[in-house]
């Protein structure tokens, strides 16, 4: 989206708005990484606690999270075909966000069959699976149409 903003709207949007959009995207990416990385951080810290039998100091948490961030960044830059396959990977991972919560709610709450909540969750789950299927098909189409581009260490 930032590329579209800079390419198509660079003349009619103030530089301060473009800078603000860039800063907000960076803040979003950094905070999202912290949120989605939390299970991994927790696991790494619990490994430390069980191995050394003492609590993890704040500075050690900072080091663990920073090293993990650098490793993730290195992998993202080093994998040469990640950008070409992003749509396909997103389509495969999308059911975790859209479908899993609906069906887990049905499994946990066990509403009456054909009640409004039951129908809504089933409809949302099926819609999520349909959208995931469309995204996977689109990702495969893009890969077939454009091919996989190998860009070693060129994000």
TrEMBL record:
The name this protein goes by in its record: Amino acid transporter, transmembrane
Entry keywords, A to Z: Amino-acid transport, Membrane, Transmembrane, Transmembrane helix, Transport
Stretches that traverse the bilayer: 20-37, 58-79, 85-106, 118-144
Subcellular locations according to the entry: Membrane
Gene Ontology biological process terms, A to Z: amino acid transport
Major localization class: membrane
GO CC annotation: membrane
Domain Amino acid transporter transmembrane: 16-144
Organism: Artemisia annua
PANTHER family for this protein: OS05G0424000 PROTEIN-RELATED
InterPro entries associated with the record: AA_transpt_TM (IPR013057)
Phylogenetic placement of the source organism: Eukaryota, Viridiplantae, Streptophyta, Embryophyta, Tracheophyta
